[in-house]
Amino acid sequence: MNSRPNLKKLVDGESRFVPPLTVSQEISTESAQGLKVTIYSKGEKSRYEMYKRILVKQLKSTIKVWTTRDNILKSDCRKVGRNIKLITSPISVNGDASTLENDVSQWLVSEAGNKFCAIDKPYHKSQAKEPAMAVCIDDATIFTRFNEIATVGTFLQFILVSSSS
């Protein structure tokens, strides 16, 4: 068993399901309160869409996303409680307006829990074919501030009806 760490984790019940070619790592800071940080990453061979197939599933919540986007990927409201809501421009940060055109940050907040995530890829269809990473922080103070910013912006929502094939 010791020569096969993944098998040992599975037997001990430590392994969680993650999509193929993805990695999830939890770390904590050494301060007294211990800030919990989770890192999600995927390789380019994964072909999984980072926001929909990894982050929404791992966070188990609807997410509000601030990033540039292409004309292909839209808000996704097909699963109750696990939607992708796109925050529209402008948002207000300490009284200063910021738009998607002049802001290069890419982040999201979960609706349930206190999760704030910084992502290295925008919400574009092409990111499914590229390696990607998200650093998620579980902290009420950080979450509250970014959630306030997200709430000021409005959301693009499209009700999508899936047809059975």
From TrEMBL:
InterPro entries: DNase_II
One GO molecular-function entry: deoxyribonuclease II activity
Keywords from the named record: Hydrolase
Keyword presence, Hydrolase: yes
Cross-referenced Pfam families: DNase_II (PF03265)
Assigned protein family: Belongs to the DNase II family.
Name of the protein this chain belongs to: Plancitoxin-1
Native organism: Trichinella britovi
